[in-house]
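G., before I forget:
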Amino acid sequence: MARVVVDVMLKPEILDPQGQAVQRALPRLGFEGISDVRQGKRFELEVDGPVDEATLTRIHDLAESFLANTVIEDFTVKVEEVAEAAK
Amino acid sequence: MARVVVDVMLKPEILDPQGQAVQRALPRLGFEGISDVRQGKRFELEVDGPVDEATLTRIHDLAESFLANTVIEDFTVKVEEVAEAAK
Amino acid sequence: MSRTPLDTVEHAAATPDVELPWAELGLKKDEYERVVEILGRRPTGAELAMYSVMWSEHCSYKSSKVHLRQFGEKAPQSDALLVGIGENAGVVDVGQGYAVTFKVESHNHPSYVEPYQGAATGVGGIVRDIIAMGARPVAVVDPLRFGAADHPDTKRVLPGVVAGIGGYGNCLGLPNIGGEVVFDACYQGNPLVNAGAIGVMRHEDIHLAKASGAGNKVVLYGARTGGDGIGGASILASETFDDAKPSKRPAVQVGDPFQEKLLIECTLEAFKEKLVVGIQDLGAAGLSCATSELASNGSGGMRVTLDDVPLRDSTLSPEEILMSESQERMCAVVEPEKVARFLEICEKWDVIATVIGEVTDGDRLEIYWHGGKIVDVDPRTVAHEGPVYERPYARPDWQDALQADDANKLSRPATSEELKSQVLKLVGSPNQASKKWITSQYDHFVQGNTVLAQPEDSGMIRVDEESGLGVAIATDGNGRYAKLDPYTGAQLALAEAYRNVATTGAKPLAVSDCLNFGSPEDPAVMWQFAEAVRGLADGCLQLGTPVTGGNVSLYNQTGEAAIHPTPVVAVLGVIDDVARRTPVAFQEDGQLLYLLGDTREEFGGSAWSQVIHDHLGGLPPKVDLERERLLGEILISASRDGMIDSAHDLSDGGLIQAVVESALLGGKGARLVVPDGLDAFTFLFSESAGRAVVAVPRSEEVRFNDMCGARGLPVTRIGVVDGDAVEIQGEFALSLNELRELHEGTIPALLA
Amino acid sequence: MTARIGVVTFPGSLDDRDTRRAIRLAGAEPVALWHKDKNLHQVDAVVLPGGFSYGDYLRAGAISRFSPVMETVIEQAKAGLPVLGICNGFQVLTEAHLLPGGMLGNDHLHFICRDQKLRVENADTSWTSDYTAGQEIHIPLKNMDGRYVADSYTLDKLEAEGRVAFRYVDFNPNGSLRDIAGITNEAGNVVGLMPHPEHAVEPLIGTGRTDGLPFFTSILKKLVNV
Ligand SMILES: Nc1ncnc2c1ncn2[C@@H]1O[C@H](COP(=O)(O)OP(=O)(O)O)[C@@H](O)[C@H]1O
Ligand SMILES: [Mg+2]
């Protein structure tokens, strides 16, 4: 079993109110030096069987037609190599 | 300027209805072979200046106290090496 | 548009032969030539941007203007009207020093492309219109139309639209108190997302969109300007969607309801301190619209330095800044000595505010960029003197055949058993089923003044805590009726909304509308439009309820197929004491049920003909506005004098639909008797207009009958509130449980 | 003499005015508090009202929790100041760790607005003494992020200590664990719940019931008797 991650972010030209709200809160938390924050979605898909070209293409299509609305969002698909050390 | 990415996911033991809704929709979209979907948040922080140990520690603290609620969520912090080819 | 060298006014004058992309920006050749004639030279890029968005169908009403004039020409005498058509929204006097502003707008096309954001920004836009009048917004309504309920794309569009309306309105703290949900295949590629808002203010707080007083400052405040929906006004709202060219759909805007909530609070605080001379929201056509309209309505001119506009994207060209439709922005005109305080209030609410210009002595709108003058126009020519078309219109050749295809001749149920099964089919059909799955996604309670909300006949909001003064609003429209006869259809929409308001005990005062039609370039559509406007204007004159404002949405069609002509009418009413409001729900066993009005064999365009026969043909129900007015007076008097405990108007689905709704809401059944002279089928399913069912306590029976008799309103005793079933004596009985399951189960089964 | 009850306005608070009205109708004196002002102006109790503070961006309550006024509220709540968090206010209280657990999106993924039946499980807090334990009441509920979650250790502890203050009855509107609608801290001075008692204080308005008024009379009695 492998994990494929689809990250969906608002296109750069599209307003991101959530990211902006986070960014505006940073100085109040005593945090300087971050010039921009964008907030998006992360989907972790657990795939049965091998993640081959064909599977990736299908996931790409899935992302394009369902996970993201490409009118306002961009997405990336990647295979997660190893489980990252959580926290 | 560099980009640090903070991924925030619900703890595994917590029900993720959004992920489930995606998973349930998959067969309708003619998509088989995905045993689990989890949906979380992705924050892209544009950092002024170099991303050194100290900065990463501060962002880690920020994630722990603010970007994630560690009562219910786990997070990971990573430096994004290169701008990924969007889509 | 070349930017090196900067396309200034001098540069334009010196380079008359430069080709500009007027066609790409949506201008026709003769329109462009008129711009050149007005200016006496070729426009600069920035001027072209302004003229093109402001002269678009969406902003200039160029196809509809000649017809809309009737709303003014035929306006009834009304003491209530404080501000009429032409401002951001109309204003009505509701007494005790209060004024109410309300308006309905469309956000149809964006909501098809991106349902959530399209619908959300629709709410945002209409609410800014209300704030711009000086009022605190107090409620929203959302008349919606979608394709077939079981079409897969409806499952994409509807939940997104509903979540967007809820997401935005709930976050603003505006109770959603009414609306409509209609399914019809004709809206498949063109859902109708109309949104209305109501605001309340004191008379002295009314504000207008005008820039007066040379030296006064122009302050832009709210969100930063980004590249949102550039050209959206002209392209997105006015172009027919054509499946072959999806690339023509530009990105829709993303709304930020939190920012808008701050905008509301900081604007109201500025009003309270009397800091604002004139104000305009930024909606379609953004700064182009706000600056030209403010200047055009005022006494002087205006000078704006575009470099001072706070940007989200520093690479925007001046043309793009002028066209940007970034949401959550407002423009205020403020006296110089009050600017500091104005900015302070903005800062208190964390709202970015910048002085971008000032009112001048002259009569020109001048805009500067990087030191050069890039716009120098008479603002009236941009804002008010756009092209006006007398588009050809003609009654379509299929209209006669459609009307001849009489629904009254459709086969009717032959047995009680069949009648019963048709009732069940109707009550469970998507259009007649409960919309609770949708409306429970909206906050009805916020602000603590909601007296009635869906599924009541009209929404009602308390305006004054002490006196109990309140306002009511209902929106209605029936595209099927309007397709059969657009003149009558528009009047039926008006009559139904009027009736819905009166049924709750409020006195109808004024009208707003949202006219949703296909392409004005099709003479058949143009005829539908002209007829509907004529019908509505005539109807408003007769009912004494002026049209105070509204919105036109054209080009609602996919390829050749236009939507049903769909005039949506909102009626606003006032009630002296909300404690007297009449609810829909049956209150008490034993109360007598009366049917008010005449029931005729009228099935053209009916829910029955649609659900049972999938048929649309014949003539819509007859309209009698004098009768509507009388019915309204009776309902209002009965509520004021405590003669009725519940009331429900009759509309699509007829009497049986209304009785089932009252029964389910009250958790009390009814025993009905078919009155003499009517057959059970007609009694249950007819959609004759001008009717309502009321429940009268026994102690009021005589008084109520006397009142109706004295005023000549036909009244028929039809039964009694009782038990836990709806029973038609001699025909059938349906338990409330069975009815409830059907009525409430349909929409979740289709959409959840 | 009556009690002064503060109501905080955060940017995006929606029910602050209604809450002040409810306090007034109960006979206490409402005091408007501003999120940027650390000073609580000598109030005897504080209500964090409902709404979408900061748009509920990031997480509901997550940004407000760091506002200046909350510094004082957190400090004083720990010292015994009565604090009631309604809906968004409840979310702020969990984010501020004045109450355990966290709030997540409703399990059905939709905003929900309904007249909700609740059982008062604990009538010994500062805010619930005018109810009786086990009493069933109807209070309007309206939220997007109303799903209360905590780990099972915390949940067991809350149950054992009688700190589940309200439970949903007949219908769980958001997937909250163990049907929890509201909880209290150990001392009983800090209470949070998702439904909106301030919307149930007048017979004509909203759902037409007044089941929410005892929240405000409870605190008034407590403060005036002191
Ligand atoms: N999209 C919506 N938003 C809010 N309320 C709605 C919506 N759709 C329907 N409603 C409400 O549901 C109730 C029934 O709607 P409808 O059958 O169209 O009423 P009527 O036939 O009396 O005009 C009304 O109270 C109406 O306001
Ligand atoms: Mg009605």
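Chain C touches chain D through 31 residues (CB under 8 Å). DSSP finds 26 helices and 28 strands in chain C.

More on Monday.
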